TrEMBL record:
This is Rho termination factor, N-terminal domain. Pfam families: DUF7218, Rho_N. It comes from Sphingobacterium psychroaquaticum. It comes from the Bacteria. Residues 1-19 have a biased composition (Basic and acidic residues).
Length: 82
Protein backbone atom coordinates (compact mmCIF):
# COMPACT_ATOMS: atom_id res chain seq x y z
CA UNK A 1 0.00 0.00 0.00
CA UNK A 2 1.47 3.33 -1.01
CA UNK A 3 1.36 6.51 0.95
CA UNK A 4 -0.56 9.40 -0.47
CA UNK A 5 1.94 12.07 -1.45
CA UNK A 6 1.36 15.62 -2.42
CA UNK A 7 -0.81 16.06 -5.47
CA UNK A 8 2.31 16.84 -7.55
CA UNK A 9 3.27 13.14 -7.52
CA UNK A 10 1.37 11.45 -10.35
CA UNK A 11 2.42 7.84 -9.73
CA UNK A 12 2.69 7.09 -6.00
CA UNK A 13 3.73 3.44 -6.48
CA UNK A 14 6.68 4.34 -8.71
CA UNK A 15 7.71 7.16 -6.37
CA UNK A 16 7.66 4.84 -3.34
CA UNK A 17 9.60 2.11 -5.15
CA UNK A 18 12.30 4.55 -6.22
CA UNK A 19 12.58 6.01 -2.71
CA UNK A 20 13.01 2.50 -1.27
CA UNK A 21 15.80 1.90 -3.80
CA UNK A 22 17.58 5.02 -2.53
CA UNK A 23 16.63 7.67 -5.09
CA UNK A 24 16.39 11.24 -3.83
CA UNK A 25 12.98 12.81 -3.44
CA UNK A 26 13.60 15.06 -6.44
CA UNK A 27 14.76 12.24 -8.69
CA UNK A 28 11.92 9.94 -7.61
CA UNK A 29 9.36 12.69 -8.22
CA UNK A 30 10.84 13.52 -11.64
CA UNK A 31 10.64 9.88 -12.74
CA UNK A 32 7.21 9.27 -11.22
CA UNK A 33 5.84 12.34 -12.99
CA UNK A 34 7.34 11.60 -16.40
CA UNK A 35 4.96 10.37 -19.12
CA UNK A 36 4.78 6.60 -19.18
CA UNK A 37 6.69 6.15 -15.91
CA UNK A 38 4.49 3.35 -14.68
CA UNK A 39 4.86 1.51 -17.99
CA UNK A 40 8.67 1.80 -17.93
CA UNK A 41 8.99 1.31 -14.20
CA UNK A 42 11.24 4.36 -14.02
CA UNK A 43 13.83 2.84 -16.33
CA UNK A 44 15.29 4.81 -19.21
CA UNK A 45 17.44 3.71 -22.10
CA UNK A 46 21.14 3.26 -21.48
CA UNK A 47 22.81 6.67 -21.32
CA UNK A 48 25.87 5.37 -23.19
CA UNK A 49 23.66 4.65 -26.20
CA UNK A 50 22.38 8.24 -26.41
CA UNK A 51 24.00 10.92 -28.53
CA UNK A 52 25.65 13.97 -26.95
CA UNK A 53 22.75 16.10 -28.23
CA UNK A 54 20.22 13.84 -26.48
CA UNK A 55 22.29 14.00 -23.30
CA UNK A 56 22.41 17.80 -23.51
CA UNK A 57 18.61 17.90 -23.79
CA UNK A 58 18.26 15.61 -20.76
CA UNK A 59 20.75 17.69 -18.77
CA UNK A 60 18.79 20.84 -19.64
CA UNK A 61 15.52 19.25 -18.45
CA UNK A 62 16.98 18.42 -15.06
CA UNK A 63 18.84 21.71 -14.67
CA UNK A 64 22.53 20.79 -14.92
CA UNK A 65 24.62 23.92 -15.27
CA UNK A 66 27.77 24.01 -17.39
CA UNK A 67 26.45 21.23 -19.60
CA UNK A 68 27.59 22.73 -22.90
CA UNK A 69 31.26 22.52 -21.95
CA UNK A 70 30.98 18.88 -20.85
CA UNK A 71 32.11 15.88 -22.85
CA UNK A 72 29.74 12.97 -23.37
CA UNK A 73 31.11 10.93 -20.46
CA UNK A 74 30.93 13.99 -18.18
CA UNK A 75 27.30 14.53 -19.18
CA UNK A 76 26.51 10.92 -18.38
CA UNK A 77 28.08 11.21 -14.92
CA UNK A 78 26.30 14.51 -14.23
CA UNK A 79 22.92 13.05 -15.23
CA UNK A 80 23.43 9.89 -13.18
CA UNK A 81 24.51 11.81 -10.10
CA UNK A 82 21.96 14.60 -10.26
Amino acid sequence: MTKEHRKQIKDDATYDALRRQGASKVKAARIANSPGASRRGGLASNLNERSRIELLEQAKKIGISGRHSMRKNELINAIRNH
